[in-house]
Amino acid sequence: MAKDPMRVLVTGAAGQIGYALVPMIARGVMLGADQPVILHMLDIPPAAEALNGVKMELVDAAFPLLKGVVATTDVVEACTGVNVAVMVGGFPRKEGMERKDVMSKNVSIYKAQASALEAHAAPNCKVLVVANPANTNALILKEFAPSIPEKNVTCLTRLDHNRALGQISERLGVQVSDVKNVIIWGNHSSTQYPDVNHATVKTSTGEKPVRELVADDEWLNGEFITTVQQRGAAIIKARKLSSALSAASSACDHIRDWVLGTPEGTFVSMGVYSDGSYGVPSGLIYSFPVTCSGGEWKIVQGLPIDEFSRKKLDATAQELSEEKSLAYSCLE
Amino acid sequence: MLPNSLLQRLASWCPWLLRLTDEPKQPVKVLVTGAAGQIGYAIVAMIARGLMLGPDQPVVLHMLGIPKSAETLNGVRMELIDAALPLLRGVVATSDEAEAFRGVNFAVLIGGWPRKEGMQRKDLIAKNVPIYQSQASALQQHAAPNCKVLVVANPANTNALVLKEFAPAVPAKNITCLTRLDHNRALGQISEKLGVHVGDVRNAIVWGNHSSTQFPDASHATARTQHGEMPVVELIADEKWLKEEFVSVVQQRGEAVIKARKQSSSLSAASADCDHMRDWILGTPKGTWVSMGVYSDGSYGVPEGIFYSFPVTCDKGEWSIVQGLEVDDFARSKMELSANELDEERSMAYEFVSSEIDQ
């Protein structure tokens, strides 16, 4: 018996990440090869023609799983009945803009979209915020959509998580699928903390700790961290454009694992509403290690946190608290 | 049943044989040329996710770009690593043809000289012939035996012909060109006209050249309805639409997308590339055919010695032209028009063959 289609919203769909993401969704990469989807694509009026071009291409691709496409500039139409919402749209930082300006623009956008989602999305809609500042945009969305369960609003740190796995696999010369359980703590920004203290590698003699195999604490506590933190900038330098392919792919991973569950023994990183675990202030959207099952995420508890890590966890929490204050000041 | 060890060895020639083993598959090498461009960016993500060769087939990606694009190409390589894709076992990013083609089992040739404003067809051919001559050399010398090639860069059919002519050790049947995009567009238009899901429409045909003389033919297409599978010509019951608007919309769809997006189709082109290769290698579903540009054997009165898009089925890694389909006078005239254009392109191409390229 074929499954009922799920409705997936992508905002900012006429942009680069959207263009990379929609064919992945339409091919079942996000929700599984047997899950039909209806795509809702939202963008701003100046992008309406480009958005229609994307819709044309989706029709031209004759995807068997794609049961419909809604391309619109109307946020209500976009949000109606959606089961999954991937918020890629936001105000990008332009040259000369202060942090406060970027924050102010995005706070307005996420407040408005919160209302629309709350009023029109399907019950239990799962939300992933990608647009930066991702954690704070997600927080604003959560605050202004009080009837959306707080557990349903998340932000993307899976890209950083995947980048961390990639760096370790390259360092060790192993397949990336043999590396697991890195953690990205905190803000999807330069204060994120990529933590390998619980990461392992599958070897011919069983799972081994990454720290042991790499045997280079200086690298793990230094260059590894900064490489992952600054990878976005490195991509921009090489491509002259920001990451789209890897961002889209990671967004699919985030939703897929959330909806279909994480494999046994594996945890992933998600920006979620903090409940105070690990001494992180509650009331922030903070990236934690999580497992997923039955469509729900759960923070992995009880991992030992050393002094080095403690400082890092606190620094990124501090930045998020400041962003939260800044965001609220923009609302006044 | 052959032993696993023998199957593994034969699989370097025919990767599909590995499906008969119960071991995890060995990685295959897939080359994408023009990989720093837009279609390349879309397709490498799809390949690395198993959308071209199946979700259980690990791949090593070879990406070729011109020297000027080396930094961009490296950025793509970085992103592929950043995506932590389980199926991706390696990435080679290079501007060296030999390195790019070395050991590859599948090649998608997207790289070519793009059409610029004011360029005539003859100019486009002139620029692309030397490129495809050179790549033919690399293909013949360095690729794995039985490498399957899809030419995407325009003029696709004629680039494929040049490739075939200058790689005589490569079986002609292993070189194809893309008309699957037009085929998929045709299915899309029919599904929109009928208000049915595109997955319920099949067996359109795109005949001829991947150019404005292509002939999208719905006369043998069918659609699944509540009353069973029915001919599209009956369901649409509008001969004028089928012979005129349908044909011109599909022919000109590329321009319509450019007009809307201000850029040419990448998403749908990359997706069609994956469909073309997947069906070729893994086989077409029963009762379904697809369109592929292949080396003509004279079927349907099409001249031999050109690459022409035909309806094909695929099985065990081989394509074969669907024979015996009725072709009416209208179709015949359209098919001849496209064949004539391909003949002209072939003549033009031979004018520009360089005698300086090493064989």
From TrEMBL, chain A:
Q: What is its EC number?
A: 1.1.1.37
Under the GO molecular function aspect, what terms does this record hold?
L-malate dehydrogenase (NAD+) activity
> Which key words tag this protein in UniProt?
NAD, Oxidoreductase, Tricarboxylic acid cycle
* PROSITE patterns (UniProt xref): MDH
Lactate/malate dehydrogenase C-terminal domain location: 157-325
- Which Pfam families does its entry note? Ldh_1_C, Ldh_1_N
Question: Which residues are named in the active-site annotation?
Answer: 188
Q: Which SUPFAM superfamilies match?
A: LDH C-terminal domain-like, NAD(P)-binding Rossmann-fold domains
What this protein catalyses is: (S)-malate + NAD(+) = oxaloacetate + NADH + H(+)
InterPro entries recorded: L-lactate/malate_DH (IPR001557), Lactate/malate_DH_C (IPR022383), Lactate/malate_DH_N (IPR001236), Lactate_DH/Glyco_Ohase_4_C (IPR015955), Malate_DH_AS (IPR001252), Malate_DH_NAD-dep_euk (IPR011274), Malate_DH_type2 (IPR010945), NAD(P)-bd_dom_sf (IPR036291)
**GO annotations under biological process?**
malate metabolic process; tricarboxylic acid cycle
Q: Record-annotated residues binding substrate?
A: 93, 99, 132, 163
Could you say which residues bind NAD(+) here?
12-18, 43, 106, 130-132
Q: What is the main EC category here?
A: oxidoreductase
Q: Where do the Lactate/malate dehydrogenase N-terminal domain residues begin and end?
A: 6-153
Q: Which family does it belong to?
A: Belongs to the LDH/MDH superfamily. MDH type 2 family.
Q: Which PANTHER family match?
A: MALATE DEHYDROGENASE
Record's protein name: Malate dehydrogenase
UniProtKB/TrEMBL annotation, chain B:
- Gene Ontology BP terms: malate metabolic process; tricarboxylic acid cycle
The record ties this protein, via InterPro entries, to: L-lactate/malate_DH (IPR001557), Lactate/malate_DH_C (IPR022383), Lactate/malate_DH_N (IPR001236), Lactate_DH/Glyco_Ohase_4_C (IPR015955), Malate_DH_AS (IPR001252), Malate_DH_NAD-dep_euk (IPR011274), Malate_DH_type2 (IPR010945), NAD(P)-bd_dom_sf (IPR036291)
| Binding, substrate | 115, 121, 154, 185
- Asked if the keyword NAD belongs to this entry, the reply reads yes
Gene3D superfamilies annotated for this entry?
Answer: Lactate dehydrogenase/glycoside hydrolase, family 4, C-terminal, NAD(P)-binding Rossmann-like Domain
Q: Domain Lactate/malate dehydrogenase C-terminal, which positions?
A: 179-352
Protein residues bound to NAD(+): 34-40, 128, 152-154
- The keyword Magnesium belongs to this UniProt entry's keyword annotation: no
Give the reaction(s) catalysed. Answer: (S)-malate + NAD(+) = oxaloacetate + NADH + H(+)
A Pfam family for this UniProt protein?
Answer: Ldh_1_N
Positions annotated as active site in the UniProt record: 210 (proton acceptor)
GO MF terms here are:
L-malate dehydrogenase (NAD+) activity
Q: Would you say which domain of life the source belongs to?
A: Eukaryota
Domain Lactate/malate dehydrogenase N-terminal intervals: 28-175
Alphabetically ordered keywords of this record: NAD, Oxidoreductase, Tricarboxylic acid cycle
Listed EC numbers: 1.1.1.37
What the record says about family reads:
Belongs to the LDH/MDH superfamily. MDH type 2 family.
Descriptive protein name: Malate dehydrogenase
